[in-house]
What we know:
The complex is a heterodimer.
Chain A: H1 4-26, H2 32-41, H3 47-66, H4 79-96, H5 100-108, H6 113-137
Helix pairs in contact in A: 2-3, 5-6
Chain B: H1 2-20, H2 25-32, H3 41-59, H4 81-97, H5 101-106, H6 112-141
Amino acid sequence: MELSWIYGLIGGLMIGCAGAVLLLGTGRIMGASGLVGGLVDGTGQDRGTTAAFLAGLVGTPALMTGLGWQVDTQATTQLWLLILGGLAVGIGTRFANGCTSGHGVCGMSRLSVRGFAATLAYIGAGALTVTALRLGLGL
Amino acid sequence: MRALLALLSGALFGAGLHVSGMTDTARVRGFLDFGGAWDPTLAFVMGGAILPMVVAWRVARAGKPLAGSAFPSPPSAEITRPLIGGSVLFGVGWGLVGLCPGPALASISYGGWPGLVFLAAMLAGMWSTPPLRRALDRRATGT
Lengths: 139, 143
């Protein structure tokens, strides 16, 4: 528990290396919402590359869990929260053209003004939402 | 070759999300809870992820990808309404559940039914965005 920041830093470095491999290897930006969204709404090109990326993204955590590195998502079991939250994340990231990985990791690292603005907006809105839920509903 | 590099990238991304604890919604929502029991882990993840990417973007200034035709063009600096409105909406959903698109996918195998419900709603939202966007544009232009 006390070491969570070290795991965070190591995991973060791995995520950054993943973005570097995709950028320097294929010329594409590692944004999770853009990659999945392009497949889902049919606007994405280069689908084979995207599918391979998603296979890796889904596959390694499954493998690690299978090998005994268990992680619990501790997600809420309130159906309305899951559905509202999922819809908001799906629609919001597609309107904004990016999420935590695209605007946050890949955008801010190239000093993109849009990346910083988006990150400020979603962290701000997220913080307000979490605080409102805690104070209002005790969740 | 492209597919292999993309698979490697996805595998590293998934492993990084797993190791960092970012598929744990309590940790993510803890980061967003600045006024409560604040959990700084996400800041370390973001910082750690940005470091290799700073180097990668420098390398990507010239030449071309190992298995690709060109690097992305320089970013636009235009702050638009969809960018801010979309990000605010994303932030609300992120705060409600604690999952963003990467971790929602990375945790498919162990997130149980709540993870699958969230993922299904997220994909439905993504799928419905282009028509939604066209409808909003039509209203804005009054046609």
